[in-house]
Amino acid sequence: MLALRPNCECCDKGLPPDAPDAMICTFECTFCTDCATGVLAGVCPNCGGNFSPRPIRPAHLLKKFPPSDKRVLKAEGCAPAGRAA
Predict the structure, then answer these.
(1) For domain 1-56, is the CATH number 3.30.40?
(2) DSSP string, 17-32
(3) Which of 62, 68, 78, 83 is deepest in the core (most CB within 10 A)?
(4) InterPro entries, alphabetically (predicted)?
(5) For residue 61, with 0-12 CB atoms within 10 Å meaning exposed, 13-18 middle and 19 or more buried, which class applies?
């Protein structure tokens, strides 16, 4: 089950469960579309994988399967793709 993390790991933008601009990699690293496509050029800084749009969990299932409330933020910030942060 996807964790549905609440924020972009790069800029800390809030990404609620219904956010249409949430992107994830295969390990569920979570970024907003602006950071994923702009700063990171489509490459996850954590694993080197690509991004896909994060699915939106239907609202009626959020109570039974709540999103994560744990915020993850890269303390060192996000470096552009090809440069380690």
Answers:
(1) yes
(2) TT-TTEEE-TT--EEE
(3) 78
(4) DUF1272
(5) exposed
Instruction: Output the CA angle 32-55-51, nearest 5 degrees.
Output: 50
1-53, pLDDT tens digit by residue?
A: 899 999 999 999 999 999 999 999 999 999 999 999 999 999 999 999 999 99
Tell me the domain boundaries of the chain: 1-56
What does the alpha-carbon distance between residue 17 and residue 72 come to, in Å, rounded to a whole number? 15
- Report residue 45 as tokens: 């800084």
Q: CA–CA distance from 35 to each of 22, 57, 65, 66 (Å)?
A: 10, 22, 27, 25
Contact 30, 9 (CB under 8 A): yes
Kindly report the backbone phi and psi dihedral angles of residue 33, in degrees, each rounded to the nearest multiple of 5, phi listed first.
-60, -40
Q: Report d(CA 33, CA 23) in Å as an integer.
A: 6
